[in-house]
Design a protein that fits this description.
alpha/beta; Phosphorylase Kinase, domain 1; 5-stranded antiparallel β-sheet; methyltransferase; RNA binding; RNA-binding; Fibrillarin; rRNA methyltransferase activity
């Protein structure tokens, strides 16, 4: 009987402390789970980011404990000093931000033309500037630059040659604009007043800019600009009829700038010069050739216009092509040669 019982009973491997004849699968699974869970906790590898965060947080926790201890012992004096130190750090951060925004790393230099400046830095190309003389936020959405210039904090306005033919002429290398502080300027075809606003900066409060524009909705924009700048007089009239605004413009103009269609430009310039321009005064005309597509321009392309100007006693002295800023345009500077007739 003993042999039969030995044959029928299965062989069960028992561990130390186990009761023979009972299944130990569930207990083994628990043991193995707990056995493998504990090593993972001990040998868990933390990411370097978390380790760095913990290292960076440790001094803060110590400082926080120290600050609490100081509050309890000193009655809040350390908290005030701690807040003052944090305020100083914030003020330093704000000063750094404003210095970057205002362009203290940029260099502003005076241009050879009076009232025009150059902005140089390591990243952008050279930009033209005029010193702002208005208290308005902006005149036509131009960029503003605040920087130290000659130990003074000044605000400058960026003058783009792609938006102004006068700025394009400066970038083209014109030798003299004949614009000084206190100059009296007559601008024919002022448009929205972008160039007019920069001329207003150049001539200053002692100068005057008379802006003539025929289109009414552009004239309304000039009126808004004149409300911000006291040295601009908007005139909504036809530039070929100067007798209509002869009471608004004095007969002592120093320079006339004409930005008109080619069909009426020379005639309007001649009529306004006879009415308002001083003898020996200067003019600036923007000549445009209608055949601008596929044609290589040079100064000989405007020989007929220059000859016609000379016939009207408007002697051209200098010509600059406005490419690549204004394709097909030429910037002509001259002098009015008509003599004053004394009665």
């Amino acid at each position: 009987m003993e042999s039969k019982s030995k044959r029928r009973s299965p062989t069960i491997s028992t561990h130390e402390g186990e009761v023979p004849g009972k299944s130990t699968h569930r207990e083994d699974s628990k043991i193995t789970a707990s056995h493998f869970a504990s090593p993972t906790k001990k040998t868990s590898i933390k990411s370097p980011i978390k380790n760095s965060e913990e290292l960076s947080m440790k001094p803060e926790s110590k400082s926080a404990i120290a600050s609490i201890w100081d509050i309890e012992s000193a009655g809040g004096d350390s908290m005030q000093s701690h807040c003052q130190s944090e305020g100083n750090v914030q003020e330093q951060e704000v000063m750094l931000e404003t210095s970057i925004f205002t362009g203290t790393s940029e260099r502003i230099e005076p241009h050879r033309h009076y009232g025009v400046y150059l902005l140089r830095n390591r990243f952008d190309a050279i930009q033209l500037l005029t010193r702002n003389t208005s208290s308005s936020a902006d005149d036509y959405g131009e960029q503003r630059v605040i920087s130290e210039y000659r130990e003074m904090r000044c605000e400058f306005r960026v003058w783009s040659p792609f938006q102004s033919k006068l700025a394009a002429g400066i970038m083209g290398g014109v030798s003299d604009l004949h614009l000084q502080i206190g100059s009296k300027v007559l601008y024919l075809g002022a448009g929205f007043g972008r160039s007019v606003s920069h001329i207003s900066d150049i001539v200053g409060e002692s100068g005057m800019v008379y802006a003539v524009e025929q289109i009414p909705w552009a004239g309304s924009q000039l009126t808004v600009l004149a409300n911000r700048r006291s040295n601009i007089v908007p005139i909504v009239e036809d530039a070929t009829m100067p007798y209509k605004y002869r009471y608004e413009v004095p007969a002592c103009i120093d320079i006339i700038l004409a930005d008109l269609p080619p069909s009426i430009l020379i005639r309007a310039l001649m009529l306004n010069a006879r009415h308002f321009l001083n003898p020996g005064g200067h003019f600036v005309a923007y000549l445009h050739s209608p055949n601008s597509q596929g044609v290589v321009f040079n100064k000989d392309s405007f020989a007929a216009e220059r000859r016609l100007l000379k016939e009207k006693q408007l002697e051209p002295k200098e010509m600059v092509l406005l490419e690549p800023f204004k394709a097909g345009y030429a910037f002509v500077v001259g002098v009015y040669t008509r003599k004053d007739v004394s009665l």
